[in-house]
Amino acid sequence: MSPPAPTADLQGTPSDHGELKRASVRGAALTAASQAARFASQFGAQVALAHWLAPAQFGLVAMAVPVLSLVQVFNDLGLSQATIQRESISGDEVSVLFWINVAVSLALALLVGLAAPLVAVFYQQPALTPILIVLGALLVLSGAGSQQIALMNRHMRYGALAGMDVACAAAAAMAGLAAAMAGLGSWSLVLMQVANSVTILVLAWALSPWRPSLPRRGTGVASLLRMGGHLTGYNILMYLETSLSTVLIGRLYGSAAIGLYDRAFRLVIVPWWQVSLPVDRVAVSLLSRLAGSPAAYARAHAQMLQALLLLTGPGLIWAAAQSDALLPWLLGPAWVGAAPIFRWLALAVVPGPFAAAAYWLFVSQGRTDAQLRYGFAGAGALLASVVAGIPWGPLGVARAYALFMPLITGIPVWGATRHGPVGLAGLLRTAAPAVLGLIAAAAAQALPWPADIPWVWGRLGATLLLGYGACAAALAMLPPGRRLLREVWALRVSLRS
Known about the structure:
By secondary structure, the protein is mostly helical. Helix content is 81%, strand content 0%.
């Protein structure tokens, strides 16, 4: 392997605030476009697969997800975010992190293979063993490309990252659909993951000029490992948030119940991830570079929080209001039972931008130790919601999750705003116009609608446009809302420069 450059720090990264903003806006536009294409591929594939596969077949693979999600937390060890956030980092340091990622991923793949029969016994599903072994082996591919992706993120190479997102989603969709048409059942979902992981690794190495060297003694990475350790602890808590309910539903209520819950969960959470993860990518990189300029930092944070609220909130409210028509239309009559679950999960994700905003603050300021402490408190609220809802099955879990979400989200937001350029009062003032718009979007969904519209998709499209239109109209009624709309409109200058 060719030796790395002496440093891998800020080469190619804009340094002045104006260029940082322009690069971030262009990056956000690129990632938004790529995520729209990625979402179309993934969503279309999931809808098509729902017509070919039964809920129990989805449920079988869903049983493997909590195990894989847990080991995935340890696979990266938070080292990718440490590479992005660090003010300066050398090629030798990145190489050490690369080899740590590879070694850990190999160990975790072996652990998953050894644990697979035990997991199958736990769920009483022998067919789960080979599925887990194959999916566990993919961890090695993830570990071998994580630092290349982190460096592209650090250098704000959002065009390359956007291309990777689209390519891996398209490859996964084609592989899954071809396998389903060939009658491979649950393995169609497994092959989607294989195609996704292989494509990411190939493109990460092809698009990143950096190559690891052999690790050298005396390379100081202790602070990076500490930050990564804090992020890993926090990610474990996030794992509990997404996986604890799935494990309990699968164990207590069987594969059909978990299939309904998993489809409803993914129809909500995958679109949310498609929007929020690219914003996280831009936000952490941008705010880390602005850490020495409190006013610019606070302004950039406010704009990204407002944008995420306005982009996702009206759509989630619409999805919850129209769930009884939306789910059967998308997935078919076999999935009618997922509609009420989907409704509550969609409402639960509406406050998601506040949780994302707290994450940006903690990581960009290097306060991952505090993030872990407040995360434990939020995890307690999450555990309480699962305990409260599990006796009533998947619907009870979804309902309790939505009702407890203000507390689950509010704790880390309060902790993130106790120090640094963004205070709690300022964050709430920032969010107030967007929240007003969301209230208007909810009111629009509550309006009576003619029942004799001949096409379901006509009603769905009209109510979606009505929700976003009502949100924009409410913003235009008040000075803070008009100012927010002007700021959004002004971003077009950055896109053209």
